[in-house]
Amino acid sequence: MEKVLTRNIGADLKPTGLNAYEANGGYQGLRKALAELSPKDCQDVISASNLRGRGGAGFPTGMKWSFVPMGDRCTPGHKYLVCNADEMEPGAFKDRLLMEYDPHQLIEGMILSAYTIGADISYIFIRGEYVVAIQRLRDALAECYAAGYLGDNILGSGFSLKMYVHPSAGRYICGEETALINALEGKRANPRAKPPFPQVSGLWGRPTIVNNVETLCNISHIIYRGADWFNSLGVGEDSGTKMFGVSGRVKNPGCWELPMGTPIREIIEDHAGGMQEGLQLKGFLPGGGSTDFLTHEHLDLAMDYNVIGKAGSRMGTGTMIILDDQTCPVGMVLNLIRFFAHESCGFCTPCRDGLPWSRQVLEDIESGHGQAEDLETLAYQIGYIGAIGNTHCALAPGAMEPLQSALKYFRDDFDRHISGGCCPYHTTRGA
Amino acid sequence: MNDAQMIQTDLDSVLSAEELREIDAELSHVPYKSGAAIDALKIVQARRGWISDQCLQAIAKYLDMSAEELEGIATFYNLIYRRPVGKKVILFCDSVSCWICGCDSIKQKITDVLGVDYGQTTEDNEYSLIPVPCLGACDRAPVMMVGDDLVTHIDEAKIDELFADKTNNSGGNT
């Protein structure tokens, strides 16, 4: 398979500086666009490529960009491009890799994206714990300013762009794009009501696009090599390649660039090496902590947005978390709900008060104090908290996804906790 | 001089010239002062390790905000510390992949070795232990950060090695 996003990431895991990046075709996409393509041309290529957002929601990137007012339709002032590098989804570890080992790929994609939407200021909003990535991005930005890829009149084109690295002060909800914008404005990161959408009124009330790291890393390749090439990369319905990851008790946990539509079984068995000795696969979250469990029956599905959606889950970030047969599903869901309850921004009641309630019920069940009616309580909470429209943003409904699917696929385990008055896994979990 | 004036005067001398210079640099690219609130907190914390009440009030005053509003921001974010922390903060990942890979027993081991639980600092002021949301290194679980360093594939032997100079009776406090 052709490597695109990881073409500069070798087995030695050496970071790619400007010289090495340029030597392997780097900044050719930018040179081509500034010399030959109008912003409208770039927009058309990205729309035709069928690139979908790699942050989790899978929204078509070209369509997202198309809502930004252009030319006379835009009032005078700044427009912003923001890279969402706040990788905090439990089980997600793909953007770290892209930023640590090939920071220029992200920066080139951002310059091209800013050119397309007419942005003159851009931010990389990155989680503060990514110390190495922050430093490498800052070094790369300095190289870009020195080489004329950033700043005024880039490569003599008349297009100007400033770019800043903005480390976050830390909160999961900052990954939600309107919450991220509030954090950039120095406020509490409560999500905003939509509309207005950020494309029209985002950072400081100005048109703003927020895209995930991996999404932006694709842009220069698509601009340079075209939409048809990108469409040909996927082996299923979706275009391009994807960073797929596997964590949990498999032989070879890791992250690999593979064609969109790669079967789940191939990712888990061939790339992750299958389960560790003595363990069986019981289920998996296909795309991070806020996606529904899938099980054995789904192993031959393709990792495409719609295919995973039809199976009752979401492709999310594409980084899977494996549940083995000696890890307690109730404990795993409790860990996730505890995370989401802690990271709730506290703005709306179902999330602020509902998630701690779910956590309490699950703690009771896990510790052997559960009652039969607790399962009805959980079902009630799932119906109330999980319904889109009852909450201010998608955090709480996302939290309900692993819970509702655990109750569907691992109901026996919940029952055994309640009838046995203890966690049946503790003997083997060592917890 | 009445009390109010005295507080006023004191607050003006809390932040160092260097801190003010860095905050001013942030102010140069935000449309209104409170837009630099989080940056200002980070600038001061980078030098002092944490944000004291006095620092909070001084920053708020400098940014034309109420201290209450800034407090709401400071306490919202996981990496802004409103209590003193040790020289190095241990950010311990207890999210799902690390949990599956046995982080509960590792955390217990750290508590045994350093004598501190979550939210506590060792008596010698070397380490504070804080849980952190998924550190994005799940393929190398269990993981944690010690200061700026990511420590991967942690097991009990690695904890012994990392904290070899610590005894298990150092005791903890908040």
Rounded average pLDDT of chain B: 92
**What would you give as the CATH superfamily of the largest domain in chain B?**
Glutaredoxin
> What is Rg of chain B?
19 Å
The strand order across the widest sheet of chain A is: 3-2-1-4
Shape of chain B: elongated
Strand order of the largest sheet of chain B: 5-4-1-3-2-6
Number of distinct helices of chain A: 19
Q: Pairing-aware structural class of the strands and helices of chain B?
A: alpha+beta
Provide the β-strand percentage band of chain B: 5-15%
The CATH architecture of the largest domain in chain A can be named as 3-Layer(aba) Sandwich
Describe what you observe in this structure:
The complex is a heterodimer of chains A (431) and B (174). By secondary structure, chain A is α/β, with parallel strands linked by helices. Chain A has 3 domains: 18-233, Rossmann fold (3-Layer(aba) Sandwich), CATH 3.40.50.11540; 241-324, Ubiquitin-like (UB roll) (Roll), CATH 3.10.20.600; 329-429, Up-down Bundle (de novo design (two linked rop proteins)), CATH 1.20.1440. Chain A is built from 19 helices and 8 strands. Chain A has helices at 18-23, 28-36, 39-49, 61-66, 95-101, 103-117, 131-147, 177-184, 213-225, 227-233, 264-271, 305-310, 329-343, 349-352, 354-366, 373-385, 395-409, 411-420, 426-429, and strands at residues 80-85, 121-126, 162-167, 208-212, 241-247, 254-259, 281-285, 319-324. Chain A has a 4-stranded parallel sheet, with helices on both faces. In chain A, strands 6-5-8-7 form a 4-stranded mixed sheet, covered by helices on one side. In chain A, α13 (329-343) runs antiparallel to α17 (395-409). The mean pLDDT of chain A is 96. With 174 residues, chain B is α+β, with helices and mostly antiparallel strands. Chain B has 2 domains: 3-74, no CATH class; 88-173, Glutaredoxin (3-Layer(aba) Sandwich), CATH 3.40.30. Chain B has helices at residues 3-12, 17-27, 37-48, 53-62, 67-74, 96-100, 103-114, 156-162; strands spanning 88-93, 120-122, 127-132, 144-146, 149-151, 172-173. Chain B has a 6-stranded mixed sheet with strand order 5-4-1-3-2-6, with helices on one face. The longest helix of chain B has 12 residues, at 37-48. Mean pLDDT of chain B is 92; it is low at 168-174. The chains are: A alpha/beta (431), B alpha+beta (174).
